[in-house]
Amino acid sequence: MPISKELRVNERIRVSPVRLIGDAGEQLGVVPVDAALQQAREAGLDLVEVAPTASPPVCKLMDYGKFKYQQRKRDQQAKHRHAGEMKSIQLGPRTEEHDLQFKLRKAREFLARGQRVQIYVRFRGAQMRHVELGDQLLRRCVEILGDVAKMEESIKMEARRMSVTLGLKPSVGATKPAAPPAAPAAGTSGQPVSA
Asked: What is the DSSP string of 117-159?
């Protein structure tokens, strides 16, 4: 059962009666809120309103502190999972050549790890009159990265931002570090031995 973010706990629950659910998920029936609070205290747990719009409201016996901790952990893990899926590279319409090459090297690293890359150009103020510079810059980026990347989404303009999304070409695959060359055996010159 999905639980809303803003929950009323213990004495903050003023509606009576409530449908009570035990800490193991078992139905305990419809009881007055005072009786539900008493059961929560006896069990050393909190009474948490999980479905305030239901009729009657649904409350659950749980360790609220532990629940909030686990919810924070889940939220952080979800954020890290999503952060790894797509990387962003920001450019300006007049980005210098050295900066462009540096950022495209980073884009290659992201692509080599199998991540998608969104390259975008942000326009400020009067730069909006020259959106063609951003288009040219993004097309150049696609051309430079063309050996390892393919366009997943074409160049598009949203508000003051023009972007393109790139993904790793299927034929390239994620790169693995090259193995060092084998060293010659001790006592040999590295020359082939003739019989």
From this structure: EEEEEE--GGGGGGHHHHHHHHHHHHHHGGGTEEEEEEEEEET
**CA 159/CA 146 separation, integer angstroms:** 27
Give the bridge partners for 86, in sequence order: 116
Sequence letter at residue 60 = K
Single out the residue of 7, 1, 47 nearest to residue 25, CA to CA.
Answer: 1
Specify which residues 109 forms β-bridges with.
none
Cα–Cα dist 50/6, whole Å: 9
Best CATH choice for the domain 83-168 from the list 3.30.390.10, 3.50.50.60, 3.30.110.10, 3.40.30.10: 3.30.110.10
Arithmetic mean of pLDDT, 50-58: 90
Question: What's the CA gap between 71 and 24, in Å, rounded?
Answer: 18
Q: Of 16, 19, 37, 41, which is closest to residue 28 (Cα–Cα)?
A: 19
The band of 84, judged by pLDDT with boundaries at 50, 70 and 90, is low
User: Can you tell me the distance from the alpha carbon of 189 to that of 148, in angstroms, rounded to the nearest whole number?
Assistant: 39
pLDDT reported for residue 97? 92
pLDDT of residue 190: 46
